[in-house]
Amino acid sequence: MTTLDTPPADVTREAPELLVPRLRAAYTSGRTRSLAWRHEQLAGLKRMLVEREAEFTAALVEDLGRPPFEAWAADLRASVREVEDLQKNLESWTAPRKQKVPALFKPATASVVVEPLGVALVIGPWNYPVQLLACPLAAALAAGNAVVLKPSEVAAATSRAFARWVPDYLDPAAVAVVEGGVPETTALLEQRFDHVFYTGNGTVGRIVAQAAAKHLTPVTLELGGKSPVIVAADANLQLAASRVAFSRFLNSGQTCVASDHVYVHRDVEQAFLDVLAAEIRKRYGADPRTSADFGRMVNRRHTERVKALLDGGGHEVVVGGEVDLEERYVAPTVVRTTDVDSPLMREEIFGPVLPVLTFTDLDEVCATISAGDKPLALYLFTGSDAVVEQVLSTTSSGGVCVNDALTHLLVSSLPFGGVGESGYGSYHGRWGVDTFSHHKAVYRRPSWHRDLPLLNPPYGRFKQKAA
Ligand code: NAD
To answer: What PANTHER family does the entry give (predicted)?
Structure first.
């Protein structure tokens, strides 16, 4: 028999129908509610990411051919920063939030009590397989929940690293890792959770939301899409090229908030392409295949997928274009296109290929963006406040960066999440604590306070007034 303090030896193989009730029992016992427990878990998570940095980095290199510095900065350090932010603010973000009370109800008081939801399921993707599991995990723990983690089977080495190290650093009575693919995730989703947090694609997002709906379980969907970039005629082109190159080619283009395609004003198209080509050469040298700073596609299937997008036609290659299926290599590539119906312009690219289109009328660009699926991010390069205002007020996206790309996701005072086809719900910092909490309305009257006579029947004495 297992108890709260002695979970089964091989927790990663525990059947979901046993695992979830075991974690729920831990939650119901009150174990996860105290701020002391939450602090312990956050400290444990941070220690795991710091002490096991070498193991997780090796896993990221194995899964994604990541340059070790990039693995550390984008996955490990980014996760530690999120944990530290939660540690620093835990008391204030989880404290009851005092609310105003109408004069009629005084001396009663009102507050919003931030309470944990129960048992959360976090399903992660393969592209930033540490950060996108560790950050929602940190938020769920900070909010006082028990958590089941389901790493992506596609990033197999990182998945194994979570399964190996989480039980050593986090409370095994309340946190478990379940490895596996579709069958294991499907079996998990049959259980009743109190929140499901899914990061990945929209097709699976719909499957997750449908499964959760059977239990009326709230869901956060962190999905992807085609995040556009607008480079206005007055933009600082050097700066735009550098930041677009960073966001497009980081992790070999496998970033949910990558710059997916660029609309550049016709007057500066050639100048922009020239500085972009120079920027790529500066970053990865004349032969990016030999660069220690350029990663690989996660597997052959995704390499073939990006190759098919490139082979789909409708564009002219300006930089790169080489693909090596054996090596899972796609060169940093820029193409010039006018064909908005090509596969490259219809699907999220999720690889190191950047289509560039021209425009002359900003209204038309905004209308095109608005006519499509709402993207996860939109990036705008301009020196004009009027242009910023026009784009902000006529388009919708999960987030926006002006004169930058991708960096908004590092600012944890901002909610990170999508809208429409790019998902719903958000996290990071306080937004993550709120996602994994119930906001309970508490109205409190002193026991000596007498009822107002007009609220109670018989109402007969007021009839004349109402008539
Ligand atoms: P993936 O294939 O690793 O899938 C994500 C998770 O879904 C995995 O844990 C997997 O086991 C599970 N899964 C897959 N098929 C399933 C099914 N049929 N039923 C239940 N579970 C299933 O990752 P992916 O979807 O290829 O990730 C890439 C996508 O994720 C891109 O669209 C990208 O933009 C998006 N993404 C979004 C964010 C964000 O924060 N919004 C971050 C990263 C990636």
So the answer is: ALDEHYDE DEHYDROGENASE, ALDEHYDE DEHYDROGENASE TYPE III, ISOFORM Q
